[in-house]
Every structure is written in structure tokens, then in C-alpha cells.
């Protein structure tokens, strides 16, 4: 049978080339994503930046460490603590102590990420004066980056300043250096110090002060603005490449298996002839497996080569797009090649199992009879797996809805759930292909001429062919609708929450990152007709089950003004009962009974036991805790909600609010403007990751669709010849072929849309159970582009080979044997 298999490969080269292309592209995708994921597991060691020349940096407590039976649990504090005054006094005896401060600066004509520092810290980077001199007065600054020159006056959110000097940029920040006294006014809190002292002596001075750290050598990087950006970038890249890798692996395996199964199903007449000639079922199966093995080995090897070529291109794209840091490159890992090769070979062999088994056990006469029409497209195995997967999808959805609806809103859930449903619908597709084609083609079939009737009957008769060609369209439309629709639906739900919870007429936000100062808050509260609620961003930490230290976002607010400016979704209790000894939590907390006392750690790490004053619904996950300002020491006011008192004029209040923030800088927004400005948007990395996934899926399924259409059209040469002999013109046949391609794309699009709607209906139900009612958002633009691209590819890929075939005489084509 080996010689027969090799001759078959030569004689049916179009079919095997199609399988080769599909498999090699699938292996290439798996290799690319594997290489990208392997390269995102480790980051290079980052050196200190702002304090590269500092002998010692002493940093106040910025983490919370809690002991549990299974080890210490650590969380980053929302409000890091300053170095204790007693420790500072000891350090001053050892050498010069320089207090570090950092605060956001907005300057007209300057970069958008300007950050202010005291001039005394410039020497630790080190920064050196290029032109001009150091700042001395409160309105003098030195800038980096060359965007302003000495002598220029620049308007900032902290007042108009005069540039008296410039320093060369260091590449990691755009800095504005103020005189030390002015920097202390703009940012009173200092959480780290640069000390000119012996490291051992500094460690002795801070001993006994909980959480205070002495940083030397490479550890000084932890004093930089964002020391964890590399690890955070790695986490984001791991999530992006992991998601992309999982989805593209599913897509490639799905399409390759479908292509291989279709290529075997095309050859039933050939198998029937072999059975008639005396071949045993085992010989048929062995022949098919040998062919799959040969194609699988060659295609998998070619795919690995393509993957090695494509991975660096992907790395360049994600770096240029800002999704990865500049240092990201593809490493020298080898396991992705082994994994991709093994997956490709396994898919090639598994893709022909069911079809070869059916071909091997079918009798010669029956095989010849089945060669023209699909009389039994659904095997028992296909029924079993399709119905089983559909049942599993329904049961898991029901368990999630009645157990933990919030789990359906997590990215890992709404990314993975469509895979199960896509596979189930694809397996059961032959059941619905015939009635679906009858429905779609009903109107064309009523038109004059036989074209519409032929399209309908051809698609309905070739159920396996229609289902196999529709599979790439199904998976692409389902992924586009499910992934983009899930994020759009979730964002819409969050926007609905924001709108319903905001009762204020105006919301005032600071211009910089330091928050509002006391003078500005007094001015806002003095505006006639304004009910002002000033709130701060903080956090609380709770130990759940005795082993998990969970951080929950919190806002600090006075209860009276808070109740007047918000409509919080209270499930039990009263917001007005909030005081310094209590807390407002949501239903996701392990303990959420009004009156119950819970042990928490506040944003600065202070341990405290608070009484639950009220409980909010969980919602989409944005309903954090509420505490009073006394339980958020060090948190600056970063939002002011303003309600109108009875009879107050909205325009007059707005004018008063703008006057109150004119000096310090701030933005006064109406409720609608605030909702629009704070409209939750998908994380950029997540959005770009989804676009990467969908782009790859569309490209791959598009090529596979074209490939499968070429295979299917080449297999119908005799059918086209019969139409020509029956009197159809060449253009009539080509129009029929194009119409059949559009029919198949329509079938795949409808099935993919059905999968997307079912997935989004599950998310919509979960949101309803969480008391958030919104509409299902289907990404019609993305779906339309996907279906249109598939339609163009399908028509071209079917009409072009048919056109070439029809150049021969119809009598010659009718004599072609498959």
C-alpha cells in the first residue's frame, strides 16, 4: 500500500497541496506564538536610572506583608509611608540627606509626561547643566529634553515659570527641576531619601523600622518611578501571547482537521474502486495514514521554517506598536519548534482518523453509490462528540450563572468559552446545512431561471463539502463576534453603571497627578449652590480564608456629601451610616453582612477592625469599598462631585467651580461629559491582542478557505462539464460557481453569528444577575469586514480554477476520472 499511497500523492496533487498549505501555515502560527511566548518569560536586568550615582537610597515602607499558615503574603501599599523622622535624624548624622519628590507637571508646549523633581536630586542620575544655571527662585526651573530654552517663560498647571537652564535627557523621563523649597510646596510628602553614607551604617540606622529599606547597587532601581514596568510588561505580553497562542492554535487545529477530513471524504469513489479491486479495510486505513504521515512530516517541517521567519517580524510589530518594551526580541528557545512539529503531525494523523475509518469499513458497492451524494453525512461519532460538547457548554454556562456570574466577565472565560461552542456547532453543522441552505436560497430559487435552484440543490446535496468550506468562515466570524462583542458589551455595562451611580451635576478633576490642595478645596466648597463631595483613591486589604491577601480598591469620602452626589447600588444597610469605625463593602467580600466586623489593613498598611455599614451589589467588579478620609491617611483628593442645592443655577455654579480651580488647574465636567470621559475602554494591550488574534485568524482562515475552495472546485470538473453539455454557457457556469461560493460563505457566517450571539447571551445573563442591565453589543463592522473578505476570497478561489478548467472542451472534461 506504500507504493499506492505514493502514486496517489502524485496523481491527486491538488488535494494534497491544499492539505500541505493548511497544515504548514497552522504549524507556522503555532511556532510563532510559541517563540513569542517563550521570549516573554524573562526580562533583562534593568539598571538604576534616577539614582544611578546615589551611594544609598532609603525608601519608606511601600509594601504590606502579612504572615499566613502557608507563608507571607505581600501587597503593594496604595499610600507608601514616609521614612520616620527619627530615622531621618539618624541618617543626617551619617552624611548628607536629600529628600526626593516626584509630581506631575503640565506645561504648554511641553511633553505630556513631564514630571517634577527637586533640583538637589538631579546629581544622582546624574544630570548636568548644558546651558544656563540651576534654579534658585520659586518661579525658576531647569528642563530636560530640549523642548524649552533658557530665558523662555512657560505656563504650567503650577503657575508660570521661567526656564533658567537645560540638561540633556536621560531617556527614561522628561523632567522639570524646581528649587528644593518650591518642590516641597508642590509635593509635601517624600517617601524616599538619597543618603551620602556607608551602606552598613545606613542599615544600622534604619534597623527596627518596619518596612524601611536601604537600597544599594542594582537594588536602587526600586527607587525609580516604575521599577516593575518590565515585569508588568512581561505579564501583559504573556497574557497577550498566551491568548493569541491558544486561539490561533485552536483555529489552526480546527481548520487543518477540517481540511484533512474533507480531503479524505472527497476520495470515497477512489476508496470504493480499491475495495472493489480487493483492498481490505485495514489496507485502506494504512494507505490514508501513510499519506497523512508523509504530508504531515513535510508540512510540519515547512511550518517550523516559516515560524522561524515570522517570529522576528511579530516581535518588531509588537515593539513598534508599543505593546512590548524596546528590549523585547525573539530568543533561542527550541521547545516551540518541537511542540509545533508534534502538533502538526498529530493533527494530520487525527484529521483522517474518522474519515479513513468510515472509508475502510464501507462496502465497495455502497462506497460507489455514496460518491455522488451525501446521504449520511453525520456519523455516530460526530453526533456523540457534537452533542456532548454542546451539552458541556450548556451545563458549564448554567453552573457559572447560578454559581458565580462574575466569572463570565473575566477575560480568560470569555476568550475560552467560544472555542467549545465553535467546535460543537462545527461538528453538528451537517445537520443544519441542508435546511439553512434551503432558507438562504429560498428567494433566489424563486427567480426566473434555474440558477437559484441549482445553487440550493448543489449546496444541499454536498453537505460535507458545504460544511467543510463553511468551517473557516464559521470560526472567524464566531471569534470576531464573541471576542470584540464581549469587550464592547462589558464596556457598555460599565458605562451604564457609571451613569446610574453618578448623581452629581458636575465632576471636577485635577490637572496634575498630585490632587487638589486645601485652598482649592475650600474654594470649591465656597461656591454658592454647590453640594461638594471630595473623594480620594485608596485601597483596603483583607485576608480571605486565612491565606489570601486580597486588595480591594477603595474611595475615601464623607458619608453625607457622598450620599447626595452618588446613587450607589446598595443591597443592604445605609451609606449614611458610614463613619470612622465602619466600611462599605460589596457582595464579593467573603464577609458581607451589615453589622459584621472585619479585620482590614488600610491603604498605608495600618491594621484596623471595621464594622460593615452597608453592602453594595458586585456589579461588573468596579464597585469597590468606601471608607472615611481618616481611614485613608495620605490619599490626596483626586475627584470632586458637585450636586446642585435646591434652586441653584447650574451655569452660575459651573462658573464658580471654574474660578475656584483656575489657579491650581482643574477640569469641570458635566455629568454626561464625565461619563463620556470615564467610559471604560478595553485595555490597549488586550484590544491589540484581540486584533492580533483576529488578524491572524482571518489571514489563516482566508488562505485555508481559498485552499479548500480550490480543492472543492477541482473535484467538480465533471459536474461543470455536464452543465456545459446540458447547454449552459461558460459565463453561466462561472456565475453558478460564484453563487455557490457565496452561499457557502453565508452558511458559515450565519453559523458563526449564532455562536457569537449565544456566547454574548451568556454574558448578558450574567450581567443581569449582577444587577447590571445593558444591551448586547455585536461588532457589526468587524463581522461585515470578515464576511466580505471571506466572500471575495471564496468567489475568486472558486471561479478562477473553474475558469481555467472550462478552457478545455466539455467532452474532454466529462471524461476526467477522479
UniProtKB/TrEMBL annotation:
<dbReference type="InterPro" id="IPR050250">
    <property type="entry name" value="Macrolide_Exporter_MacB"/>
</dbReference>
<dbReference type="Pfam" id="PF02687">
    <property type="entry name" value="FtsX"/>
</dbReference>
<dbReference type="InterPro" id="IPR003838">
    <property type="entry name" value="ABC3_permease_C"/>
</dbReference>
<feature type="transmembrane region" description="Helical">
    <location>
        <begin position="286"/>
        <end position="309"/>
    </location>
</feature>
<feature type="transmembrane region" description="Helical">
    <location>
        <begin position="466"/>
        <end position="486"/>
    </location>
</feature>
<feature type="transmembrane region" description="Helical">
    <location>
        <begin position="335"/>
        <end position="359"/>
    </location>
</feature>
<feature type="domain" description="ABC3 transporter permease C-terminal">
    <location>
        <begin position="692"/>
        <end position="807"/>
    </location>
</feature>
<feature type="transmembrane region" description="Helical">
    <location>
        <begin position="380"/>
        <end position="402"/>
    </location>
</feature>
<keyword id="KW-1133">Transmembrane helix</keyword>
<comment type="similarity">
    <text>Belongs to the ABC-4 integral membrane protein family.</text>
</comment>
<feature type="transmembrane region" description="Helical">
    <location>
        <begin position="733"/>
        <end position="758"/>
    </location>
</feature>
<keyword id="KW-1003">Cell membrane</keyword>
<feature type="transmembrane region" description="Helical">
    <location>
        <begin position="414"/>
        <end position="433"/>
    </location>
</feature>
<feature type="transmembrane region" description="Helical">
    <location>
        <begin position="12"/>
        <end position="38"/>
    </location>
</feature>
<feature type="transmembrane region" description="Helical">
    <location>
        <begin position="688"/>
        <end position="712"/>
    </location>
</feature>
<feature type="transmembrane region" description="Helical">
    <location>
        <begin position="778"/>
        <end position="800"/>
    </location>
</feature>
<keyword id="KW-0812">Transmembrane</keyword>
<protein>
    <submittedName>
        <fullName>FtsX-like permease family protein</fullName>
    </submittedName>
</protein>
<keyword id="KW-0472">Membrane</keyword>
<feature type="domain" description="ABC3 transporter permease C-terminal">
    <location>
        <begin position="244"/>
        <end position="363"/>
    </location>
</feature>
<feature type="transmembrane region" description="Helical">
    <location>
        <begin position="239"/>
        <end position="265"/>
    </location>
</feature>
